[in-house]
Amino acid sequence: MVAYWFERAALRADPDDVEQRIVAAVCRGLEGVAPKAGAEDAVAACARASRAMAVVSSSPESVIRAALASTGLDRFFDAVFSAEDDEHGKPHPGAYLRAAAALGASPDECLVFEDSLNGVIAGVSARMTVVAVPEAADRRDPRFAIATLVLESLEDFETSAFGAHGHPTPIVTPDSLDRRPYSGQSQGS
């Protein structure tokens, strides 16, 4: 994105330097961010029910790690995967498939938590079980119905709903964990 705008505006600066400064500022901005309501309980429940967990995001790895450290949820995860390392970002399923392979799980054993439509599409395309927790502004978007389950809040997540799937390998995005809390009841799909 930085390189695009530099080329378009004919700016005279090093785009890599600007990108690094932006990422560093984002990481600093994550300091002290609290988990969303229900995030810690949902992540802890998934950790008890699974053999390994990973975070997959389109964000740079340093941003992912800063978000996890800030929320204190880093202790639950075995791996971090940034789609920035893949040729195609979400909605392409590549980052999810790479994470599943690295964790030794088949895609149908994986449970994905997503807040974005592109992430939901990526998880579904990877043949994973997808729990969508969209932002308030997106909750009425009918396209989220492709997810296995749509919740208004992580507080509404019940691991018992996935008993038929065995013990899935949870894969989440930092965005589904570290924003302001939601309120309301689950919409289930």
Describe this structure in words.
By secondary structure, the protein is of the alpha/beta class. The chain folds into two domains: 1-30; 34-176, 3-Layer(aba) Sandwich (Rossmann fold), CATH 3.40.50.1000. It is built from six helices and six strands; from the N terminus they run αααβαβαβαβββ. It has a six-stranded parallel sheet, sandwiched between helices. Strand 3, helix 6 and strand 4 (129-132) form a beta-alpha-beta unit. The longest helix is centred in the N-terminal third of the chain and has 15 residues, at 15-29.
Sequence-ordered SSE layout with sheet pairings:
Layout: H1 2-9, H2 15-29, H3 39-49, E1 54-57, H4 61-71, E2 79-82, H5 94-103, E3 110-114, H6 117-125, E4 129-132, E5 149-150, E6 169-172
Parallel strand pairs: 1-2, 1-6, 3-4, 3-6, 4-5
